[in-house]
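Suppose you are handed a protein chain with no further information: no name, no annotation, nothing but its sequence. What can you learn? This example shows the usual starting point.
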Amino acid sequence: MAVLLLPMAFRALSHALRTISLLLIAFVIAIMVGCGGTTTSAPVTASPGGGGTTPPPPSGSGATAVNAVSAPSNSVASGSNSSASVTLNAAAPTGGAQVSLTSSNSAAASVPATVTVAAGQSVANFTVTTGTVSADTSVQITAAYNNTLAGFTLTVRAAAAPPPPPPGSGVALTLSPMSVSLVAGAKQLFTATVTGSSNTAVTWTVSGGAIAYNGFFTSPSVTTTTTMTVTATSQADTTISQTAQVTVTPVPPPSGSGYSGTGPVASWQAYQYKDTDGLYHQAIKITGAKTPYPVIGYSYSGAGCTMLGDKFNDFWQPLGNGLWWFINRAELVYVKWVWYDNAQNKNILQQTPCIDYSSAPKYN
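A reasonable first move is to predict its three-dimensional structure. Written in structure tokens, the prediction is:
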């Protein structure tokens, strides 16, 4: 009887354990369903040491700063391109990382506004385009990302001057005009023509006054008649040059006194002219002029013609005989009238003294 009861006891115990297990599983499932939860499987990554697993980096993690900007060489010839790269402190996040680029001198070395580091990458390349410089020029290239900056200095090298041609190169140069007379402060355009070379540039030098790169000469102030030179030298062959002579005379003194006078090109009388606004304006009557010249009136608020306030004939129109007057600023009673040869050279041919129009005769 005892032998028969032992197997039955084992079977009852086994059945009870299975029942309890099923009940526990059902209980856990019921709790999860009742809370609205779901079960998921998360991927795992083997640790480098093989001693377990670590979770992957959280979504959206990646580079937070720009680490460096560099180029294969920090020196590049002007007029050529150079590659450069920007490096982040980690791989770019999903969608990539857009890095802003700037140049401290875009005329010497320009960069694109932005460069994108591809997702999962930490480096992106871009092109630096250089311009023409007359001397070696340092340019700062800067990258910005997520409120961080990095940069480097690039030197743009000026092109070396071409060697002079051998003697008998066939280069010729002509200069025009070869002589000219100017009043102090006047301007004159000189033209240099180079033949026999594709390089037609010239270098200008003067013994007095000033000259621009395009040959526009400005005569200096002088107290007596002075002779000076303007020289053009071929850049293709520096042994070839031409020299012009410039005679500079002092500005002619004012002609006349008070309210009338006669100068080298015309006679004049000053009047107060009542315009349609009912106010008396500063006027000048020109007589005896054989050739019309630009006449500019300068009106001032200070006695002795100080503190310029207005100008008459801003368009530099040649004016002949007749009555001419200011249409604005009747309150500016101190006026000087100046005759010029033309609007380009501005050679002063004649001028009046400073006229006080407050007591000038009225024109009827």
